[in-house]
Amino acid sequence: MNPSARMRLRGMIRKESLQILRDPSSIAIAFVLPVILLLLFGYGVSLDAKHIPLAVVVEQPDAVTASLSGAFERSEYFTPRRYPSIQQAQQALQARRVDGILWLRNDFSQRLLAGDRSPAGVIVNGVDANQARITEGYIQGAWQSWLMRYAEERGRKLPVPVAVEQRIWFNPALRSLDFLVPGLIAVIMTLIGALLTAMVVAREWERGTMEALIVTPIRIHELLLGKLIPYFVLGMGGMLLTVVMARWLFDVPLRGSFWLLFGTSALFMLTTLGMGLLISIVARSQFVAGQTAIIVTFLPAFILSGFIFDIGSMPAPVQIITHLVPARYFVAILQSLFLAGDVWPVILVNAGALLLMAMIFFALVWHKARKRLD
User: How many domains does the chain fold into?
Assistant: First the structure.
């Protein structure tokens, strides 16, 4: 690059940097908004089911029913509430005061000693299907644990055809926070990169300063680089802030390489900047550009990236659409780096997809960007 080109590029970078400093909304989007989103999701959103309100009905109290009821009371997953009759417990379930009912009938002990496979009754509120499955699974787990302990205390053996030894990899504590926060970083970076750059060219058209830039000797690639570099630095600063909060505020482990995380984040930031810049060139209104950026980039990153909703459980046509969402690939990279480590097959495949998408977006930007008024 010759000295005059470097001077023009430095001038463009300085102009855009001053614009960022004069516009508090850019700083807020890059640094304040990530903090707010992380705090909201970190402290306000949890997919963990604990302290589930459970109605316990014991029609004939004895030592056996007391032992089983105590097992549920000692569990961190349940908050048992005693009801004298099944009718009152069903009323509480209908009023949403409890999420399930454990019903120990008056012949519970006799049926248990006789080897009846279903001595206890369980009723679960199925309005929320996911919560119902979790509640049912926890009740089944607590029942099986108590039943095996009860048999061991009496020197009896349960007829268990298969002995299952569970091992949970990557997230042994089963904390949904360790799963949500890395995915949220991808959503935040999508919002920062696409929303900020969606305004840069549209703002010049709206304020009438694009005509002045067109008549200057600056070339189109210098104009684009001068606008992208400050927002790239701003976006990477927001990324570092979110990683620091994830690691030290929410105690999410980072088992992979930080520099690999930084490099893949830079690649994803370039992809989102290309998306935002393409939107900004096509839409010459800041309002239209901002709304388009939210609909085209942020919402798909939130819904279709695997951040919250499992892609494998989506309908087949929707799964195909998710391959067009860059955040899908970055979420997979983040979850691998944070929870599993440097899993190269996952990282290389998804980084390659991001690189391809970045090249496509910048090719479209180069095709659409022209120094002319039409």
Answer: 2
Burial of 56 (0-12, 13-18, 19+ CB in 10 A): buried
**pLDDT digit string (tens) for 64-103?**
888 888 888 888 888 999 999 889 998 998 888 898 899 8
Phi, psi of 215 (to 5 degrees): -85, -5
Q: Which amino acid is at 301?
A: A
**pLDDT tens-digit profile of 326-348?**
999 999 999 999 988 899 999 99
Same domain, 359 and 252: yes
Residue corresponding to tokens 């944070």? 338
The DSSP annotation for 82-101 comes to EESSHHHHHHHHHTTS-SEE
Q: Are residues 211 and 350 in the same domain?
A: yes
Strand order in the sheet with 100-104: 78-83, 52-58, 100-104, 120-124
The boundaries of the domain holding residue 119 are 52-153
182 in the same domain as 114: no
